[in-house]
Amino acid sequence: MKLKNSIITVLIVVFYACNPSGNKSNEQRQPIDFVNPYMGNISHLLVPTFPTIHLPNSMLRVIPSRNDYTTDKLFGLPVVTTSHRGSSAFNINPVSSVDDKLQSVYKYSYDQEKISPYSWDIYLDEEQIEVKYAVSHQAGIYSFEFASGQNNSIVINNQSGEIAYSDGAVTGFQVVSNAVREKTTKVYLYMEMDKPSIKAGLLKDGEISEEKSGNGRNVSIALAFDKGVNKVCAKYGISFISVEQAKANLYREIKDFDLDRIKEEGRYEWNNALSKTKVAGGTEDDKVVFYTSVYRTYERPVCISEDGRYYSAFDGKIHDDEGTPFYTDDWIWDTYRATHPLRCLTEKKLETDIIKSFLRMAEQMDHFWMPTFPEITGDSRRMNSNHGVATVLDAYTKGLTDFDLEKAYLACKSAITEKTLAPWSGMPAGELDLFYKQNGYFPALNEGEQETVPEVHGFESRQPVAVTLGTVYDEWCLSQLAMLLNKQDEYEYFLNRSFNYRTIFNSDTHFFHPKNDKGDFIEPFDYKFSGGMGARKYYGENNAWVYRWDVPHSVADLIALMGGREQFISNLDATFNEPLGRSKYSFYAQLPDHTGNVGQFSMANEPSLHIPYLYNYAGQPWKTQKRIRKLLKEWFRNDLMGVPGDEDGGGMSAFVAFSQLGFYPVTPGSGAYNVGSPVFEKAEIQLGDNKVLEIVAHNASDENKYVQSAMLNGKPLNKPWFSHEEIHNGGVLEFVMGPKANKEWGTELEDAHPSAKTLE
Questions:
Q1: DSSP run (H or E) holding 737
Q2: pLDDT tens across 624-633, in order?
Q3: Are both 105 and 41 inside the same structural domain?
Q4: Pair (166, 285) in one structural domain
């Protein structure tokens, strides 16, 4: 991330010499040319995707400051977004023809917007100002071209903190959190202009005062320029350490005011990252969906190491990173399923550094617990379960072993056994956790029974089925780590506990059904709608039809519990065909996260992502192939509504990327990939160390979506899965595709993944 500018310049010159810009055919275009940051910017119901401008995993991210894509108003121009789809710090406002008093933040009308992953161009039409922006890792640069002959000014606003003007620079900090006692997180700013101002000072009552600094809420520094100055560039650095470090970050990354050069460097860096997976064939839109999805997986987590140091909100201190970059802002509940496994293929060093960062967080917090939702402002402990253990196991079993496994195991075990399992809580274990330990399930409240347990979040509730299912998977992961560490007793203990989903399985209905503390199923019960808002009284964001399949570590036993393969398939089919049961208005009023529906299946929420691949486990892989292609076509498109729900910074996009390549990691930590239906005729995945996995899908097209036969490294592949071990040194995965299902391929009992063989 810190290549010297001279080296980057040489590489860019070579890159553009070999790949000249201009109109290009698909063969000439580079991966970056297929990224559409606008894909999904209009939501189906809740949060849309955002057209984020950043470099891969960069600390500096920028999102246009507007309520929604559909508006034509901006609330000033952003300086830095401090969390995925979260709050921003500072705000910059160019102003022309100032006849009235200056404002702290302007509501701009705009047009002619163009966004790439690394740049932003926009025209403020009422102000008649051309704006251009380019981003680096910890520094950015704006260019403002004003209409000639105007009284031009720039206002830099701080919502909460300090701001000052001295020696031609605007400096200050904004508080972005005070959530963890005294461990306040601040983002520092150092900004310079390329033109001298004729007046600069604190904004007071709409006028530029003689005061040069201020603090509090909504304080601003304003700079006025001579009428002959029609273009001003503003470059800035940010830091979580100090103003001095922000200045150092700026000078390290942007030495002059050459915005075009920063754009070129950003384009080069993005293309380098995206080129680690190349695809050929498919349609134009297929490529856009693929590369846009991969772009989304690089938004988080972010590297906050600054010249070998980083500020940690986990203990409120500045640390030496000791040569290993520190990463945060990773919602693990969303990303453990596919985003982390994708990095295990293409970004091994990055993934290893992320896990090392998790361990540092655990060491820095009050308790030695693996984080669940690490952010710039600390661990928010959102959602349910402790799936950091899955990222550790998945990485280690795939050969990413350059971290302390013993320490990681202890951090994971402590989080699962010492912290409460109650969702959205960082409190120590309490009475519900003791009950879980003794009885194997998280107890539910009876209808109308009042909550009295202090660990339970007022809105998020107990989510007892979601907690039970998520935790037994976490305990399975712990068992596998214990086995790797030769801890036989702990291996057996956690392995036995990983079957506790059986305690809440209703054999009459084949659903996971909440139980009260007396051991009785909650009755009467509606598997679609019981549980209140988001079904949180019993599940979590999704209803029982989704959580029916949330046993990724033991699909074999789930098949057996449902009465065998035939009934398992019948229940899967029903999931995709069961009506909503109410009008859309009523359904989504209660289950707003449960969007992208195909029957009761939700394409828009992460617990559903593995479900289409479960046909592979029960002898009908052709249905997985059919369903995956249909879901990709219906819900992920190159348009403004082309993402069905909360994308969560790579969580859902990684599912898309994997599925278009033709395989998916149903069970992170198992080392297995399930075969789907490859979209592209050819793909190459750079695995590092000059190792390449080539995927060839002969005849692949919208019509030819069914696997007729397959080969892996020159040998017939007759099963609908393969192991990471089989591809970790590269190789060739080859498919012959056709328009009709081959109902013989991968259907035998011995073809299924070992976790899906019927129990004796």
A1: strand 731-738
A2: 999 999 999 9
A3: yes
A4: no
